[in-house]
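Appendix C reproduces, verbatim, an entry submitted by the partner laboratory led by Prof. M.T., so that reviewers can inspect both the input and the predicted structure.
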Amino acid sequence: MTSGARDWRARSCGVLVVAKAPVPGLAKTRIGAVVGAEAAAELAAAALLDTLDAVERWEPACGRLLAMTGSLQAAARRVEISQRLATWTVVEQRGATFADRLVSAHREAALRWGPDLPVVQIGMDTPGITGGDLDAIVGALDGAPPDAPPGAASGAPSGAVDVALGPAFDGGWWGLATARPGYGDQLAGVPMSRSDTAARTVAALQGAGARVRLVHELRDVDDWADAVALSRSAPQSRTAQVVRRLQPKPEADDPIGTATVREHAAVSPRAGC
């Protein structure tokens, strides 16, 4: 680690996690079409716990806020999740659309943490997220350090920016870091869970005058193929352990069960977190 990288990593920030209670039949429905609703909820619970782990291990996080939709009373691993959230501030998501709920969550963070604390928002769909990923997206606000992941300094002018965005492989985004409150308001009206969500988010932010920098891409866990890929890239995660337990016996010419995934993809609409 370079000394410059160490300097910016000492900067505190608040972390906002946006999540859905892992209730069978409501969480990870595309995966549920392959492995069943109960198993999909178990995987969603593991993903949420993995995300909490990553945030709690990350030193710059001086505030932790979880904006949740749904009730934990019917959720998988509800006791474990409730115990883990004892040290978090938990609020209910508010709004008619997912974009509205994101705006509300960012406003809640601003009310609790004030105007001077940078905020990074992530979801529970990237359970393989690491402290290095969080370093990169927060560090991008001030100019990505030399040891940031490849691509971390792309897509913006040099120097400090107002917003850093972490795109996902599917066209959405896994993280949004803001230098100060207000930029989350620009998410209102942006269509979520689409192949052009990241591009539309950047356009909305730039249209409001924000300077935006892109960081590296990560994979969202939206379907069974994503879950299997995550189990290989983050094998020690809770999510990977659930995937290995659930993974169907592969066909000889279909080593990760993608034929089963393709069979259900046409009838299983994508759902946001």
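DSSP finds ten helices and seven strands in the chain. Additional entries are available on request from the coordinating office.
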